[in-house]
From TrEMBL:
It comes from Genlisea aurea. PANTHER family: NAC DOMAIN-CONTAINING PROTEIN 73 (PTHR31079), NAC DOMAIN-CONTAINING PROTEIN 75 (PTHR31079:SF31). GO terms for biological process: positive regulation of DNA-templated transcription. Residues 22-185 form the NAC domain. Pfam families: NAM (PF02365). It is found in: Nucleus. This is NAC domain-containing protein. InterPro entries: NAC-dom, NAC_dom_sf, SOG1-like. PROSITE patterns: NAC.
Amino acid sequence: SKHCPNCGHKLDGKHCPDWVRLPAGVKFDPTDQELIEHLEAKVGVGKETKSHPLIDEFIPTIEGEDGICYTHPEKLPGVTRDGLSRHFFHRPSKAYTTGTRKRRKIQTECDHLQGGETRWHKTGKTRPVLANGKQKGCKKILVLYTNFGKNRKPEKTNWVMHQYHLGKHEEEKEGELVVSKIFYQTQPRQCNWSSERS
């Protein structure tokens, strides 16, 4: 049984099994601030912060060798090329035993055959995520590139990841839980309307 997230009423799955699952067509599209709030609740920041009872249905946790930085996005649960986003809690790991560089190289069968690498590459600056005028966390944007290697020109793919972590530091702490939004960009970014006019 579960409790209603609004009123706390106990819901018995035997008497109302259709209520617990949301109907087809309901979209989960949280803002940056809402993702940080879900992350805070998941790690238990603050005594009054409580995770939504259905959050694991919308943001599953992926651990270890099945993690985002080991697996191609197409092989992650529920991820498709239709432009819709999927969200995951996960823990980035270090690329090497020494240093702070995070592992972003993923393992694919094609890479072994062709001698290149597929990896997430950070683009732009790490941005602060504010809530009520205070910085609660940070957001990084990463793009998946293929063909990394010696004397090779990396090729940009349409796979994009927005990664969020708590705190004010540009990099997340070792072993810290983060939340990521992954999607396949189906359309090129549009230019700013005001700059087109000028």
